[in-house]
Amino acid sequence: MLKPLGDRVVIETQNEEEKTVGGIVLANNAKEKPQTGKVLAVGDGRVLENGKTLSPSVNIGDKVLFDKYAGTSVDYDGKSYLILHDKDIVAVIE
Amino acid sequence: MLKPLGDRVVIETQNEEEKTVGGIVLANNAKEKPQTGKVLAVGDGRVLENGKTLSPSVNIGDKVLFDKYAGTSVDYDGKSYLILHDKDIVAVIE
Amino acid sequence: MLKPLGDRVVIETQNEEEKTVGGIVLANNAKEKPQTGKVLAVGDGRVLENGKTLSPSVNIGDKVLFDKYAGTSVDYDGKSYLILHDKDIVAVIE
Amino acid sequence: MLKPLGDRVVIETQNEEEKTVGGIVLANNAKEKPQTGKVLAVGDGRVLENGKTLSPSVNIGDKVLFDKYAGTSVDYDGKSYLILHDKDIVAVIE
Amino acid sequence: MLKPLGDRVVIETQNEEEKTVGGIVLANNAKEKPQTGKVLAVGDGRVLENGKTLSPSVNIGDKVLFDKYAGTSVDYDGKSYLILHDKDIVAVIE
Amino acid sequence: MLKPLGDRVVIETQNEEEKTVGGIVLANNAKEKPQTGKVLAVGDGRVLENGKTLSPSVNIGDKVLFDKYAGTSVDYDGKSYLILHDKDIVAVIE
Amino acid sequence: MLKPLGDRVVIETQNEEEKTVGGIVLANNAKEKPQTGKVLAVGDGRVLENGKTLSPSVNIGDKVLFDKYAGTSVDYDGKSYLILHDKDIVAVIE
Question: Signal peptide location in the record (chains A, B, C, D, E, F, G) (predicted)?
């Protein structure tokens, strides 16, 4: 079990074969290449300069859209996970 | 349905054929190339260092002018959407 | 009608033929090339980290001096407008 | 005995032969190359701009995942240690 | 009349022939090339993040030493003016 | 006698011959090359944006580990000193 | 007379012939080349973001050690002065 630190989030990424999530086909522009996945774990959040902690804006189970080149990838029990910062998640797919 | 996070906004962009919105023809200078679109969804806003959340400055339905190279593009049900940060929206067309 | 967002300002720029405004001839150094224009619309202002909004320092109708390469240019009903940030306005010509 | 300063943490790194920790095989993307280790000592934490000290988010004994290129390596009594900043620790392996 | 905005200051620069002001001969090092002039107008000052305005540190009439490459030059009624930021003024010559 | 300013610290560095301090052999990675020494003098500390002064985290007499390329070296009475910032000290050797 | 602004300090630098001040011979590393001088004038100090002014950490008459490439040099009545920021002064020589 991976417990992400700070504003990090553990994502179960989609396979290459499934390029659509919830019917969404992704078109990338030159700057950002989005990818989709499911949130498996969230950290406690980012600490602001006034000492308060800001909770991540996603919850476990959310389907999310994020920048494909963001984060650190980890393989565990044959599955591929991604650990990325909350700010790199672009949108939740509802 | 895409729910943008933070200060992000989902925009329905204009087709290449329609280069004018509300009669405005866009002339780009070397630095920024503006484009127009309609706001479909807005995030909760940016969190300031004092912990308060600053609501985005546009509302659903607004016609907006933004930097063409800003944001992440997504195709959904044959339409083209753009997810960009509130600060990349230059003006509202009234 | 263009409503600029944040600390942005809509400027009606001068024609190339009119290189002087109020008798001022502009000499550019290597770093900044100033240009003159009239303020047509102002945004609500920049939001400070304490949550307060700082009003732009110019008013509608002001003749202003700004950096020629700043901002986004827009053509509307045959006129040329410029949308730039309040901080890029160098001086008001009184 | 090494006492790390500020938000630094002393890590006992894994040998090259043990590429898995807790069954996790690490796959690196182009940006970050994670590595695992055990926390031996933690500093007092980072001082925020309001003067408060923010304790590190890991404890002595934690198995952690961190960026392989982060930190300063030190050899002591034939073992290899790494001193890195708390923010470079990606996740705790539970 | 030019009214500088924010922490800007309008300077009446010295002619090339007058390389000394108050008996000071300027020697430039590789990093900064100072020049002298007289303050003609000052802005209201810089707005701090707490919303307070910080008045410029020079007054109208001050002889000042500044970085030659700083600011925006403007010609008006045959005279050469320079508009620069308060922080680019190195010293007052008394 | 050298009195370091701000968050600076004066260090008496080790000779090249003594590559170990307290039995520690230093192995450098590509990013940081640590070195050891003894603290001779400490400044008053760094001033935070709220006006409070943050005392340095080391004391006179501490054996410390620091980045070899940090700071300014000074020779005095045949000895070699290094003046570096408190943040460049990685750990205290106890 | 030069009155430095903000956190600036006017320094009377040493001649090339006098390479030692108070018996200190300076050895430069690759990053910073220190030089010595005497403080002739100090500014009012740096203004913090909370509006308070932080006095410079040196006084008139102090012998100081600073980075040789910092600041702006000025010749006045045949003497060489240097105007530099308080933060570029490394230590006071007592």
Answer: none
